[in-house]
Amino acid sequence: MTLRVVVADDQTLVRTGFRMIIDARDDLEVVGEASDGGEAVRLTRRLDPDVVLMDVRMPVVDGIEATRQIAESGSRARVLVLTTWDVDAHVVAALRAGASGFLLKDIRPAELVDAIRLTARGDALLAPTVLSRVLDQFLRATPDPAPPPPLQDLSGREREVLTLIGQALSNAEIAQRLRLSEATVKNHVTAVLRKLGLRDRVQAVVAAYDHGLVQPRRP
């Protein structure tokens, strides 16, 4: 199955570069390009892509608001935010808006392709080099105005799994930590997302921080 991608960036050269990288793979295809967030929302509605590569800083409608509109529309598209070091605070806002992950813009072509595939599958995609910095410094300092989803429906084991997701552990790492099979962990993750009404693992990371299951590290 070919994964359909929309690329949203206000720089034509950047969009062209991403298109060349993506279209060179047999299982990926760029089905649309947007130069601002409003156009990205409209293309997502019309083209029904699997993944939207979303720049944060764009004219007219920025990437954060576009991400929010896509998430609230009920679209199946997952948004992968592209960012640089100087927009960490905006990354947090994008995660809260419904982004499924973020990457640095200087990512290598092979890593970008892998990121698109991972995001389409619903796996967490948080650039390791910026994950701790972003979450620890900003997420707890910028609480979501909406209350986090209640945890009372989670079992004790599911709460454990949510805590470890909040630490950005993979299913394999969680399985090793809890001495469970990966299949069992996957079932627990699915149950956590369903019970909390979350789109994916990235939203589960945000929920874990919001509930204090994971605490920011002190500098």
Automatic annotation (TrEMBL):
Protein name: Two-component system response regulator
GO molecular function: DNA binding
Ranges for domain Response regulatory: 4-120
A GO biological process held by the record: regulation of DNA-templated transcription
Domain of life: Bacteria
UniProt keyword Transmembrane present: no
Domain HTH luxR-type: 147-212
PANTHER family: TRANSCRIPTIONAL REGULATORY PROTEIN NARL-RELATED, TWO-COMPONENT RESPONSE REGULATOR
CDD domains, per the entry: LuxR_C_like, REC_NarL-like
Signal peptide start-end: none
Keyword Transcription regulation recorded: yes
Keywords carried by this UniProt record: DNA-binding, Phosphoprotein, Transcription, Transcription regulation
